[in-house]
Amino acid sequence: MNISDLTYLLNKPETINEKQTIALENVVLQFPYFQSARALHLKGLYNQESFRYNYELKKTAAYTTDRTILFEFITSDNFTAIQQEKIDEIQRSLMDIEVYHMEEIIALPQIETITIEEEKVELEVIEKTSEEKLEIGKPIPFTPSERHSFQEWLQLTKFSPIEREIEEKNTQNDPEKQKKLDIIDKFIEANPKIAPVKETTKPPANISKSTEEPTHLMTETLAKVYLEQKKYTKAIQAYEILILKYPEKSSFFADRINEIKNLQQNNN
Q1: Which structural domain, as residue segments, surrounds residue 48?
Q2: How far apart are the first and last CA of the chain?
Q3: Are 167 and 222 in a shared domain?
Q4: Which has more pLDDT, 192 or 253?
Q5: Which of 105, 121, 200, 205 lies 20 to 30 Å from 246 when distance is taken between CA atoms?
Q6: Contacts of 68 (CB under 8 A, 6+ apart)
Q7: Residue 245: how many CB atoms within 10 A of its CB?
Q8: Is residue 182, in this structure, part of any structural domain at all?
Q9: What's the sign of the alpha-carbon dihedral 2, 65, 149, 137?
Q10: Number of domain units in the chain
Q11: Tens-digit pLDDT profile for residues 94-105
């Protein structure tokens, strides 16, 4: 991936495809502090609904000095936008599918004999179905009003904030790597799309974790966070609160609770 490719993707991040996402990953591996490349890599994973997005989001947070800026980025309209052309293409392909009328076939009743192995397979199928229904592993869709959920999500990250000073000392002993970093810095300065964020007098947003989860902070996203963290009891409690907050969606939340209980039962 060259400078021209990066510039194009910075202007049209919604067009990032799977191949470009892989190329961006290679850039990030070579230059871990190249924030623009990390941002585009995250966007690519989001576009693909990759199960790696949640993991890479935590990793990016470790390389970010100000997580508030990261939160504002992933909740921006540019980040959450999906390429409309892809949606239109999928809709057209669905419309082109021919439906044939098939004759109804009535199967003769059979005596069912279930062995222990079959029961085990059945449990595995149930667990897989529950995970699919709960959309475990899919990118968590944070919104600008869900800073608390974002902080809750990051609290269990295994990645500690990375000190760039250590990396800079290492690059001083590697002229070739330092030269590449200088090129990146010049690229950042020359491209207004990725200009460094200016300091303002606006006080930093408070996204610190509270000791309890007040009802007004409970959202579907936070419930999903608990689910991704395998905090099944807290996830169930979260959906019970959401049933009280949004009775019109009580059926949906109740189904989620049942699926979580299935996961609990199968994991015991």
Answers
A1: 3-83+142-194
A2: 47
A3: no
A4: 253
A5: 205
A6: 147, 204, 205, 207
A7: 13
A8: yes
A9: positive
A10: 2
A11: 555 555 555 555
Inside any domain, residue 126: no
- State how far the Cα of 219 lies from the Cα of 81, in Å rounded to an integer: 21
Residue 153 Cα distances to 9, 20, 133, 172, 263, angstroms:
28, 27, 21, 36, 20
173-185 mean pLDDT: 59
- Both tokens of 173, joined, read 């002993």
Band the pLDDT of 252: cuts 50, 70, 90: very high
Tokens 């007098």, residue located: 201
Q: At 58, list the tokens.
A: 């935590």
Out of 21-25, 71-75, 219-223, least confident range? 71-75
| Residue 244 parent element (H or E) | helix 232-245
pLDDT value of position 193: 46
Check whether residue 78 and residue 153 sit in a common domain. yes
Q: Check residue 22 and give its pLDDT.
A: 92
CA–CA distances in Å: residue 179 to residues 37, 166, 182, 215: 18, 17, 5, 52
Residue at a domain's end among 167, 194, 221:
194
